[in-house]
Structures are given as structure tokens and as C-alpha cells.
User: What shape does this take?
Amino acid sequence: MKGVVFTEFLELVENEFGLEIVQKIIDECELETDGVYSSVGTYSHKDMFKMVGKLSEIKDIPVPTLLNIYGEYFFKTLSRDYPKFMEQDNLFSFLESIERYIHPEVLKLYPEAELPGFESEIKSKNEMILEYSSSRKMADLAVGLIKGAARYFNEEVEIEKVAETNEGEKVGLKILLI
Amino acid sequence: MDIELYKKALDREKRARKEAESLLEKKSLELYNTNKQLQEVITNTNLFPEENPNAVMRFSAHGRVLMYSNKHGDAIIKFLNQPLRKKLKVYFTSELGYSFEKGVKHQFDMQIGKNTIRFDVVPFQPFDYINVYTADITDIKATEVRLQKLTESLKEAQQVSENFNKKLEIEVTERTKELLDSEMKLKKSLLKEKELGELKTSFVSTASHQFRTPLAAIQSNSELLQIIAESLHEETRKRFGKITTRITSEIGKMTELMDDVLILGKLTAGKVDLKQQYINLVDFCSELAKDFNEIQSDGRIMKIVTNGKQYDVKLDPKLLTNSLSNLFSNAFKYSVGKNNPELIISFQSKEFVLTVKDYGIGIPKDELTKLFQPFFRANNVTEIKGTGLGLSIAKEYFEINKGVITAKSIIGEGSTFEIKFTRQK
Assistant: This one.
């Protein structure tokens, strides 16, 4: 998992809950890097799960909710750092471009990256099905990101999990524009 | 407490930064190596078209923009850019444009200076450019031209040959016609000659018979006179006797002449058949010589000499008798008072020769060639009786028997008649 996921997460935790919580998470999780993350590095996704889990424990917020919130926040970072990928007309065409254009471009820079699959199908002007697939099973993060994207495109959405396989390895998301 | 937190946070930042820097270094090195590899590949790839002995070029924008060219391509571009070559340049660009438009491979030829260059235009769709490769086909073209000329020459030659054949056919036809005509004429001539021959024979035969009748009458009348003269007194009887003897003698000559003419006529008309058989030549000649020896009043004889291993010969005995008799007769006739004449019979492996030799008056040298002509008599025999037909008849007889006669002579010393026969197996 790319370092930027870790660095942005810790930044969010620092902003929302303060440095002490950050330190506490680092101290109490047995992290491979002792909490040292560079955005350009690559680290084990297990450490990410540990940190999110610890935070959930400390703040008594369910993990899915935490991932949702982080997803929305993370999208802001991404859209800022990669304006090239934001040159779409609307949310749906943007979501379509993830699989088709964005991820292939990412692979050019980081050939070893393990990116989730986002197969899309536009049902109508207001409805789209997005199928998330990843061994990391972080569909909730994806939902957060989608929400962040909607905000970027000034859209309001309702996201519903309509299918799930292998405990979250594949998740079908119905996105409705409202 | 806060300071500790910040210190730890700061420490983490430092370490993160260091990590990022080392990653950066690593990535830079990777990039450098990749670049270097790429450079090498580019250089090598670039070398490849540079090594090509023909032009390699790449164009974009429908053939108007040159993206790459090896040195041979540069030469062509330079050539096309000359002010005098404007038309060629336009043609070149339009040909490239065609390939671009249709998206298909295309080939065209162009004269660059002394050489004919073939251009292969290959569009490269995904990248929207065209590659141009060339080949120098000057030699191929020259060969094509030569081949064309050779084919034309061949066609001409074939035509000439055909014409010649036609002419030949015509000539052959004409010649054949001429030959047939000649054959026809020849047949007609032969027929005519045959007719003439038969005419002559019948004339000769008729003439001699016609002559015989009056001759017989004269003879019988002369005999009658002789009988009447018996009753006259001796002197008148003697005188009558001389006269009638002369008459009889002359009739005899005429009869002999008639006979000879008739014989010669038959011989020359080919009316005498050859009936050959095996004979003992020595015995035969001895018999014939005996007949002549008996009638020589002065006791002369025909001496016979043989040499060589004897064998039987195939000849017509009747014809041989006639011809040899003539020679024997001449030999005795023209050597009165001289030595005996000789017959030499020579047996050789492939031929046998009869030689009749006399030691008589001989024959003048310049008359030897005319000797066998009918009615010919040498100028030194006017006193001696003869018809002048004997030798010509003998010659005919010998020739029918397939022999060849020749004569040699020295005046005053004698004559030699030689007849050569080829031995028949």
C-alpha cells in the first residue's frame, strides 16, 4: 500500500484528534516501520488495518465509519495532487475513468502497485453501478472516496451496497444521484 | 508533555524524509540506467537504418513532414529539393499522400539521376506516420529492357525464319515441278530414242535384206555368165573368168558389209542378249585358235601363252567367239610374212586379261583413238580388204560380255589388243 495512504491518515488523525492519539496509535500497534511513513514509500496494508482498528478502539467509532470519513478526506488530497485526473465533466464519467484511465496511468509510475478494480456500468442519467474488487476488502474506503468525488463535482449521492462476495473482496455499489 | 510529542513527531518526519530521499536516489539511479539502456537501444536501432544501403525514411502529416531519414534518404530528399526537380517532388509527395489516405502499402518507381529507384511506402497506423524504403532497380530495369529487346529480336528472327521457310517451300515446290518436267522430257526423249533405235534397226534390217535380193541376182547372173563362158573359146573364157571372179569378190565384200552392218545395228540397238556360262577359257581359246590355224596358208599359228592360276570364267561363249575371231583375223591379216601372232591369257585375282599381239604393220599413233569407230580404216591399210566395222563390232561384243578393250601399237612393229574382264564370283 502506497505510503500516501498512511501519511494522509495520520495527518487526518492529528488534525481531528491531536498528536497524542497519533502517538498512542503508533505506540500501541506493532508497526513494521515504527510509524515512519514517507508518501512515496510502500508499506504493508496490514499496518493500515492495525492503525484503523486501534483508532476505532480508542475513539469507539466503528471501522467502516472511520474508513468512510477517511475516504472523503483522502479524495481531497488526491484531487489536489493529481489535477490531470480531474479533467472530467461529471461524477459518473469520472468514476468510469478510474478503471479505464487513472489506474493504468498510476501503474506506469508504480508498476508494483496493487490497485482495486472499479468496473462501472451507467444505468441511467442518475444511476450507476460500480463494482469494487480488492483482496484488501476496503470497500468502505471506496465509498468514502466516492462521496469525496461527488462533493468535488457538486453532486449529491446515495451509495448502497447491493452485492458482496467473499467477505468484501467484491462489492457492488449502487450510486444514485439525488 | 507536548514537547515530547512534537519531538517524536519531528523525529518521525526526519526519518520519513530521509527515507523519501533514499527512495529518490534509488529512483534516480534506476532512471539513469533505464535512460542509458534506452539510449543504447536507440543508437543501435538508429544504426540499423544507417547501415541500410538503401534509403529509409519516415514521414508524418500525409508525407509533408520528414521525421527521420538515413543518409541515403537525405541524398534523395536533397535531390528532390533541387529547383529543377519540382515536378518530381510534387509527384513524390502525392504518392506518399495516397498511402496515407488509403492506409495501404504502395509502390512507385522514380528516376533519381542515372538510377531507377523503387519506393515502398508502408503506413504505420497506430502512430500515424509512413515509412518509406527504397531499392535500386536500375539493373533490374536494364535487364528488363534488354529482355524486351531480345524478345523483339527473337520475334523478328522467328519472322525471318518463317519467311525463309515459306520461300523454301515455294522453291522446293517449283524445283520439284521442274524435276518432274525434266523427268517427263527425259522419258519422252528415251521413248523417242527407243523409237529411233527401232526405226534404225528395222531400216538396217530392211535395207540389208533389200540389198541382198539384187546382190543375189547379180551373183546368180554372174554365175550364169560363167556357165555361158564355158562354151566360149579359152581366151574369152579366161577373160570372162577374171571378170566374174571380180564380180563375185565384190558381191562377197558387199554381203560381208551387209552382214556386219546388220550385226552392228543389232548390237547398238541392244538386241543382243547376254547368255553367260562358266567356261574353261584356255580350252575355249585353244579351240578357236585351232580353227584359224587350219586356214593359214603360210603355216602361221596363233601362239597361246597362259599365266597365273587358272580358273573358270563366266562369259557368253557365242559373243566371245565373234569378238575374239575378229581380233584373231586381224592379227593374221595385218602380219602377213611376219612372226606368229600371240594370245596371252592372264589370270589374276580380281580380273583376267586376254591379249592379242601381232608383229605386223602396226597402226599409226594418231589413228589409235578412232580405231574402234564404225567404218574407220587406218590410212595404211587401204590395200588390205576390210569393211571397217570389225573392231567396232568386236568392241560391242566385248562390252556386252563386260570386258574393256584397249589398243596399243607401234607402226612397223605390231599391235597389241588388250581386253580386261572383271572376275565374277
